[in-house]
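Justification of resources, computational component.

The compute hours requested in this renewal are based largely on the per-chain cost of generating structure records like the one below. Each record pairs the submitted sequence with a full structure-token output. That output is archived, and it is also reused by downstream analysis tasks.
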Amino acid sequence: FQQFSDTGSRKEHVKITSEPKPGFLERLSETSGGMLIGLVAFLMAFYLLFTNEGRALRTAKSLDEGLSLVVSLDSIHSISQQNEGRLVHLAGALSTSKPLFDPSYGLSIQAVKLKRNVEMYQWVEYEDSKEYEENGEIKKETKYSYNTEWKSEVVNSRNFDREIGHKNPSAMAVESFTAVSPNVQVGSFVLSKGLVNKIDNFKQLSLSHLEDPHADVTRGGDYFYHSDNPRRPEVGDLRVSFFYAGLSGDDPYLGTADMVSLKLFLCFASSVPNSVTSKYFSLSSKVTVIARQRGDQLVPYHTKSGDVLEILYPGDLSVEEVFQKEHESNSMKTWALRAAGWLSMFVGISLMTRIFYTLVDWFPVVRDLVNVGLKAFALCVASSLSLLTISVGWLFYRPLWALLLALLSIVPIMVARSRVPPKKQQ
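The structure output for this chain reads:
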């Protein structure tokens, strides 16, 4: 059955379903399916842990190689043939050949990237479920609530439990997009596509000083609204915001090349032909790049270790600061993947041993003891096998560290055995 209520703009209803309590054979069948999933997770953990160590050590070795070979350029405005094919380090202001446009809103900006973000006011469904046992049946009580929100993607209301009264449009009249400058330079050097992709520190563009571009579009704060009443939007209304990354270009009124001018133009073709409004902002756009010099191009550098060095950071950084940041990033990624590998192994072992819990789940006391024992078993085995797999991954690169990790992998098992009473060991 269902219960309905309406609390202002938020609507909700409760749906209760029931089904017979599964029998022993049915529970055993479900456990068998979980064992198969556990086996897949268990095997994937070995692959993830092993390949992660190889990747981490290869990256660290490549960074050390790059640090020993990199050459800092004296000038970014002249290209030296002596550095052809070498790994170079330079820092300077970004520059682009021409501004990026959004013709629909008459917006133009001198930057590496311009992103238009479109949101629609639409219904969103939230689900909260709980299960309980009553009269020998398993009942599931699900609470569905609906609220109107701004969303960047279209929410398919056909998947709602109750679409009536909560129907969303199937598409947006205006689409989001990201424009990228075809030619980005630092001094006389042209950045590769990979380096341009790394310029992703987007900031929202202020529209407070602009006017409405069209009669059916209203500006409110930093948004353009396709709505009759932006303060009280209706389902299907749109709002548009803009983001930029990598401001570029020099301006004679703002000083040196370390400072960048941001120009915003708004053309009112319908009301004031050829009229242009501009505003300037003084912002730093320096970036630091480490890549291979190929003519006037900055391209990926392939190390002897088989890795690729193509680095870009905002700001003016020294060679040592750049490689320190790269080592820190590599370390964080390595530990994150180690944790993911251990978790995958722990979950896999837990699912594969779940059958022992199912066999005794009708005895409450025994069931709880078995559950604790299985969790402890999965924890110890996952820790030992993870350490052992990591040591094998290190074996080719650092044999002594691999041996130490292998010995360390025995510790969890030894601790577990030391807690077992002597009679059970015999």
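Residues 24-60+326-418 form one domain. The longest helix spans residues 24-69.
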